[in-house]
Design a protein that fits this description.
This protein has about 140 residues and is of the alpha+beta class. The protein has a single domain (about 5-140), classed as YjbQ-like (Jelly Rolls). Helix content is about 20%, strand content about 40%. Strand 5 (about 100-105) and strand 6 (about 110) form a beta hairpin. The longest helix has 13 residues, at about 60-70. The termini are close together.
Length: about 140
């Protein structure tokens, strides 16, 4: 299979951790043809991030949000403050978690653990819509 790349637009989400696994995978029906490959997920923003984490217990995203708020609090004496008190902490959190994921693909599915999901980590109070680029490469059942 040749390389495939698609952009996915995500609607605005409130601050916090939001599972986006199904939304991303539904935008990529070609994934079903891949026997073995790689899916790269890239978020085109500096005040949000991506994470693979526990997808079953709603306490996990709440605890992740609380933990990151303790690491990068809004009341820290940041120099970059022109975009509001939640902006610079959002940049710190984005740098800590990262803006891209590489996920192996096997038999038409991402190789995620039983309890793993892909999260959009929205670090702004009103971050707006977000854009994700999905890049897929791999061998199909026909070997191409």
């Amino acid at each position: 299979m040749p390389w495939l790349q698609k952009d996915v637009s995500l609607p605005p989400h409130p601050r916090g951790f939001h599972i986006i696994t199904d939304r991303l995978l539904s935008a990529l029906p070609e994934l079903a043809t891949i026997r073995v490959g790689l899916l790269h997920v890239f978020l085109q923003h500096t005040s949000a991030s991506l994470s693979i984490n526990e997808n079953a217990d709603p306490d996990v995203p709440a605890d992740m949000e609380s933990s990151l708020n303790a690491i990068a609090p809004e009341d820290f004496p940041y120099r970059h403050t022109c975009e509001g008190p939640d902006d610079m902490p959002a940049h710190v959190k984005s740098s800590l978690l990262g803006c891209s994921l590489s996920i192996p693909v096997r038999d038409g599915r991402p190789v995620l653990g039983t309890w793993q999901g892909i999260y959009l980590c929205e670090h702004r109070n009103r971050g707006g819509s977000r854009r994700v680029t999905l890049t897929l490469w791999g061998e199909t059942d026909a070997g191409g």
